[in-house]
Amino acid sequence: MKNFGYKQSNSDHTLFLKHRKGKITALIIYVDDMVVTGDDHDEIDCLQRHLTSEFEMKQLGDLKYFLGIEVARSKHGIFLSQRKYILDLLTETGMLGCKPVDTPIEQNHKLFHCLDATSTDKGRYQRLVGKLIYLSHTRPDIAYAVCVIEGYTDADWAGSADNRRSTSGYFTFVGGNLVTWRTVILVVTILLLSLLEISSA
User: Fold this and answer.
1) Angstrom distance (rounded) from CA 130 to CA 150
2) 99 with 90: CB under 8 angstroms?
3) How far apart are CA 46 and CA 68, in angstroms?
4) How far apart are CA 4 and CA 135, in angstroms?
């Protein structure tokens, strides 16, 4: 793609962009699926001819579904939805009959460890949070709730011997395939553990 004048995105290595005459063409690739879009119709036609000469390809028409995201067009614009993804998630968690709420979590809600609670399957919880993170791409209304529970998915809690900072991270899978991932070294030093160690000495 670089030889054809496209620049690879720094934020997503599967995204290639080409700017020409004030217009843009974008190509995103995931395994054996690709989406070509933009406002430069001549470049899109040229790109499709080039790719067809290099690879065996099938033109599927307008985008309708990609990586769990449904695409619908109307005279008002393009609408992105993850309805099927949500229904599959609700079925998997046994919550298909649940009632929707306007606010999925109280603001400033704090999670805490409940000593008499039954143990949770950590792997299942992490997978569920990963799916919710992916869902929040088209559902910003759940972003706050997802951020709250995301903080409890996995962290090594002051695991760095040098600065006592924690590392946290997540993976998002769609259909068993890795789509996004992130690891973060938390910038806030955990002082509470140090204070507890000092007071107990």
Assistant:
1) 8
2) no
3) 28
4) 34
> 56-78: per-residue pLDDT in tens?
888 888 889 888 889 998 999 88
Going by DSSP bridges, is the β-strand pair 33-38/167-174 parallel, antiparallel, or unpaired?
unpaired
* Phi, psi dihedrals of residue 99, rounded to the nearest 5°: -100, 135
Read off the pLDDT of residues 87-113 as tens digits, 9 standing for 90 and up: 999 999 898 998 887 777 777 776 666
Q: What ranges in 75-184 are assigned the alpha helix state H? A: 83-93, 122-135, 143-150
The sheet carrying 33-38 orders its strands as 7-8, 15-20, 23-30, 33-38
pLDDT under 70: residue ranges of the chain: 110-113, 151-201
List the one residue out of 150, 120, 124 whose CA is nearest residue 136: 150
DSSP 165: -
Cross-strand pairs, 114: none
Please identify which residue in the block is written with the tokens 């107990």: 200
| Measured distance CA(89)–CA(46) in Å, rounded | 40
